[in-house]
Every structure is written in C-alpha cells, then in structure tokens.
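Final report, Chapter 2: Outcomes

The project's central promise was a pipeline that accepts a single protein chain and returns its three-dimensional structure in a standardized token representation, suitable for archiving and comparison. That pipeline is now operational. To close this chapter, we reproduce one record exactly as it appears in the project archive, with the input sequence first and the structure output second.
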Amino acid sequence: MLDGRQESSNIRGMRQLPLKTRSLILKMLCEGQSMRATARLADVSFNTVAKLLIDAGKVCADLHDELVQDVTASRIQCDEIWSFTYAKQKNVAKAKRAPQEAGDTWTWTALDSATKLIVSWLVGGRDGEYAIEFMDELRGRLANRVQLTTDGHKAYLEAVEGAFGGDVDYAQLIKLYGEPTGQKGHERKYSPSECTGTKEQRVEGSPDPKYVSTSHVERQNLTMRMHMRRFTRLTNAFSKKFENHMHMVALYTVWYNFIRIHKTLRVTPAMEAGLSETVWDMDDLVAIMEERAPKPGRPKTYKKRGTEISK
C-alpha cells in the first residue's frame, strides 16, 4: 500500500509524461501490443505502462457506467469469451504463488446487433452467479424491450428470467458439434470441433426466428482477441493479474465504443447508438483522465530545520 507521499509522487510522475506519449501508449495497448513491447516502443518503463493501464481502466469503467445508459436497442446478442489469468485452470494447483483469481477467466459481452455497441461487459467466472450479475446489469442499461439471443449456456435461463421476467423476447441458439477436425498430435489438440448445425430454442416472448443469431457478438469476440494481446492464444502474453485484465477490458470497451470507427457503420458504435455526437480521440480520453486524477496534496509530514513536524 502506497503512503500519501509515494502516491503523490506517482501522480506527479505520470502527469510529467507528455499527453501524446500517454495517448500513444494507450493506442498501442488497444491495437494488440503487449505491455513490454509498448514500453519499448514508447521508450518508457514497464511500470509506467502498467500504472497508466490501471489509471485508464478505472476511468474507463466509470465512463462506461456513466455514458452507456438508457440504450434504445432492438436486438441484443450475448456471449462469453475465454482466457486465463496467471495459469491455465489445470495448472493452477501446481503453479507457484498462484493468486486466488488464477485460472479460467471469462469475459461476458452484450452487443447491440444494429449499432455494434458493447452495452455491457463483465469479467469473472462462467457460473450462474456471474450470469445473474451480467443480466441484471444489462437490463439496467436498456431503455426498452429487446429481442435477446444467447448461446445454449444453461446459466442464462435463470439469469434472464430474474432480470427481465416476461419483458423480453428471448431465444437460445444452440450449436451442435461433431468430432475434432484434427485426428492426431497438435492438429487434434488445437483444431476446433466442426459445427455441424444449430438449433433455435424459444425461451420467452416472441423472438423473430430470422434474428435469432449470435454472429455479431462472436465477430466481436474475434475483434477482442485481435486488439487485446492478453487474449491471444498460445503465447506468454496472458494476464498475470486479474485486476489488470479487467482494466484492459474497460479501456478496450471505451476505445471500441467511442474512439474506433466501425468499418461498416463508418462512425463509432456510440455515435450510431446516439450516445455521442462526435468521434473521440485517444487524446480526449487522456484529457478526461487528467481531469479526474486525484490532486496531489501536501505531505502528511515534512522536515524543517532538521526536525520532523507532523501536520
């Protein structure tokens, strides 16, 4: 735990870093660079990158809570994307100094199919408790009744019922898989099973069968893997700390919703959803971080003429 003097020193050091450099660091993190590669390219220390990510993650989580509210949508798609923290789940027991959050780490996302806006996100486990929390938060951000599509994960059933009751048109898209495409060795280990078909299952209300789909949110999963290095498989860039994983997802979500121009929409998802009138720049986010940073105060103790005097 940092004392007041250390914390003030860190804040002053971060503020002395030029705005353009901070903006560049955050851009590189959102474009798939690892933290150490970012530190080398920006010519700063690894700790500087880590501190900036933490500060950005906290501000971005608050911005998402403040700005993504009363969303008018018609079709919402939900999915979960897998990653891991510190060690894969099967290796946690034998991993040295593994933290409590080590192992499987799931990122839940809810996407507005029309505007491509990430309405809600949650990082944690894949059990019913997290499903309930995720659906409760999603319901709180929506301004109207929607058609909701999820995969066949059973935890969604109770969570959707508890959050929406009967005020939703809800269907599940259940994928059917065959045998793995690879037959032996690494090909079998890393090749996904072939999807042999899908089954639509109405759960609540009157969902339009034509729009029972999770294609858009699954494409968003690919975007997340490409733009966040810690989601890349078969590398050592995975998250070492659960908190930093959440900070990166928070930063990515604001970048994706408010800064990155969607290729098909030709505007940002936030603009398409009516939540923003302009395209943000990473400099704008850094400026907001500067405004919201705690102001460094006077130290609790100081020395005068060789004597330490407490305030």
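Archive annotation: The CA atoms of residues 120 and 197 lie 28 Å apart.
This record, like all others produced under the grant, will remain available to the consortium after the project formally closes.
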